[in-house]
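Let's practice the habit of predicting before peeking. Look at the sequence and jot down your guess about where helices and strands might fall. Then scroll down.
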Amino acid sequence: MGDVTDTIDRRSQAELLSLAVHEFRTPVTVVAGYLRMLAREHAGPLSEKQRKLVEEAERSCARLSALVMEMSLLSHLDSGEGSPVRETVEVSAVLDEVIASVEEGRDREVRAVRAGSAEPVAVAADRLGLGESLRAMLTAVLREQSEPGEVEVLLGTSPDGSTVLVGIGRDGEASRIIAADYRGASLNEYRGGLGLALPIARRRIEQYGGHVWSSATGRALGAVGLRLPIKETRS
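Done guessing? Here is the structure:
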């Protein structure tokens, strides 16, 4: 009964998000168009102060447009329509790419470091989607750090070798989060300043047959852990 209720709730949420996307998209597009016209001085020359105001408004409008796109993607994931593209993805390589590209925390001397296994381990996933999901989780953990230091991104496997495990945290939290019993644990995904990146990440990981959870409750996120089934390879 619980699974049926969850499915109905997810579909209702998807429908609501789809409606919101439809209602937001047109006015955001119109505002963006008028701002471009102002920036190009179609309505007359701008003073330096006016130009800066228009540029700031354009940046905010671009963020709104990105949020509408995220809402559309979240609606699609919640609707359960279609299946994600599956390919053989080597997790260690994706983690290295994500760590090298994340900018969050550098201004506060907080950096992400790789730990654990560097051995190739493959999962069945969409490489781009998996990378974006890992980037969202790492960014969220880095954003919470107020003191300089290192955030560990730990890669391992389950004792039976059937599951790849990734832990993200500092001061030993990465190893503790993947050693914990994650069943029943969930991800505190509603974090300010990240848009819908974490809810999208969780749903993507679940589509790949995995699970995401965090160590803290309330408004804090704490460490983040995820598991994915290892793809069997035939020799």
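How did you do? Residues 1-5 have pLDDT under 50 and may be disordered.
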